[in-house]
Amino acid sequence: EDQVTQSPEALRLQEGESSSLNCSYTVSGLRGLFWYRQDPGKGPEFLFTLYSAGEEKEKERLKATLTKKESFLHITAPKPEDSATYLCAVDNNNDMRFGAGTRLTVKP
Amino acid sequence: DAGVTQSPTHLIKTRGQHVTLRCSPISGHKSVSWYQQVLGQGPQFIFQYYEKEERGRGNFPDRFSARQFPNYSSELNVNALLLGDSALYLCASSLEVGRYGYTFGSGTRLTVV
After folding, report:
1. What DSSP assignment string belongs to A27-66?
2. pLDDT in tens, B75-91
C-alpha cells in the first residue's frame, strides 16, 4: 500500500538554527512529490513540486530535495514566522496521499 | 485574483443530518479535489473531479458524494452525519489532474454534535 511518512512529528528550533524535515514514501508510480505549509485553521499553502530523483528547488530559506525513496525540506536560518506544519504529499494516479506533517516551532 | 473559495467557513450540525459544502476553484482550473483533515493528521483524499467527471475516489463510505458543475465549481455532500465526520474539509483546484500542483482553499470546519 502507498505510504508517506514524515519525521520528526514535531521540531523546535531556535531562530537561526538550520535543520531538515524528512518525508519517506513508497508508491507504485510517483507522478510528483509536493511540499505544503499549513498554518493553524487554514488550508495548505503550496511550496514545491518535485518530479524526479536529484531534483532540487529553493524558495527563500527553504530548499526541497528528492531521492527515489525520500524527500528533504531544508530550512536555513529559520525565523519565527516559519513556524507552521509542513506537509509532504505524493501524487499517484489522481490520489494525492499526504503524510501527517511536521509541526515546526521556531523560537526567537 | 481570487483563490479557491469555500463556503461556509464554519458549520455545526447534529448527528444524522445532511450537509452540503461548496467550492469555487481558481478561474481557469478544471480539476477540483476534496479532502478531509482531522486534527493532528494530514488531509485524506475523498474525491477528484475533472471536466465534471469523477476521476478518483478515496476510501470513504457512500454517505459521501460530490459533483462538479459546468462552471467547474463543486459540492461535497455528506448524509447521515456521524460524530467522526467532524473535521476540516478542504477543496483544492488545479489546471489539470496531477503535475501542476494543487491550490487549497481555507476549508470548511464541520462540527457534528
Report:
1. -SS---EEEEEE-TTS--EEEEEE-STT-EEEETTEEEEE
2. 999 999 999 999 999 99
